[in-house]
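Why this split exists: single-chain examples teach little about how molecules sit against one another. For that reason, every record in the complexes split bundles all components of an assembly together and asks for one structure covering all of them. Below is a record exactly as it appears in the raw files.
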Amino acid sequence: MCLGVPGKVLAIDGLEATVDFFGVRKLLRLDIVDEPVTVGDYVLNHVGFAIRRIPPSEVQETLALFEQVLKDAGVGDLMAEDVRGEMRAAPEVKEKA
Amino acid sequence: MTDTIGEQLEQLKFRDPARARALAEALAREVKSIGRAPVSVMHVCGSHEQAIARFGLRALFPRDLHVIMGPGCPVCVTDMPEVDEAVALAMAGHRIATYGDMMKVPGSVKSLADAQGEGGTIDVVYGMRQAVDLATAHPDQEVVFFASGFETTAVTTAAVLMSGVPKNFSVLSAHKYIPPAMEIVAQMPDTRIEGFLAAGHAAAITGAVVFEPFVKKHKVPVVVAGFEPLDVLAALVKLLELVKDGRAEVANMYPRVVTHQGNKHAQEKLWTVFKPVGGRWRGIADIPDGNLRLRDEWAHVDARKRFRIDFSQLWDHAPSGLAQRCICGDIMAGVRQPSDCELFGKECLPESPVGACMVSSEGSCRIWHTYGGVPDLREVG
């Protein structure tokens, strides 16, 4: 009951939206959400109500925050050594002759 | 199709193992630089424990960091007399609709599941609108929606009531309000909590601002956190950073969902329909302003006003002796953990719960029973 699940708005009819949750379509009420919601937006579903429109720019903002706390904590860049090793080891892509 | 895959990858950014390791490393550094051990912080949301247990995050936490589970499950803190009210209404022949988690929560003598076994009509619904549909489909019956959940869920109850309901529909509110409970926990002498992780979806409604008076009063930081593994880890790093610097502030690490002021539109609905009143949270304490009850203007849809609730039918057998050995209250107050309970995984199981913490998918005991509490991957290698 406590979960909030993000989904993508496919259609809107008045205060009701059809929302896709990774392949499952549900009807959600839009009474509570405090911003205009349009088709293509992501919304957070809580017991059949959209409680928040999630702007894509703010997803980036959260990711940037992660980088910031790491920087503040003095941990180097985020790319782990094994990933970097992988990249070093991978053959370069060459144009076909 | 590419679109969907791209978006799923976007979601996976919040589960990226490389970032998780880097954040775990940052956690270890912060704890070390605080320079005293252990450091205890508390989350107040069952969904945070879900994320921690499901993704095995405790194995990444430094040993000197104690992440304590607070009273973060609204089902678990529903008090026995509240369950008794719902059971009594069911036994009196009314139709009860409620969230699935509420079925097995023990009352003084019976749960709603017991009442159903004895002939009561109880419907499990996903959301309150389905409960309203039941009332429309059964105009000859009184349908009572037994409403539980924190402020996020209470807002949906308010919205449905404000949009109008059939005459044979009413609400029995067991909704709870989190901020006052944090006050009580912060004052408990046995729990020395140096910082709190606040529940992201409750804060989506109230805004991060709701914790400002709390941090000033108790001189501890609060970090609003989301529910993906990286959300939890990053919020903990931020929290420890604030602890280290002695900064009693509110930080928002879940800005994709939570704003400073919250959802004003939802707050307006919440406080139009509900008022905060004092009352018991099961196993914890009397929490001033911790319960959300319908305002007098909504008496016509308040089951407590509509019916004279008769408890006499409930006491046809004695209450269980096991319940007295349940330490659910101590667990939610952060003093003990599920593995400290002698009933855990023995007499108390998800199929036959003794305490409410084993009932709900948000309950600490249920989560630890499902996923294991502290996976020690270091010993595995």
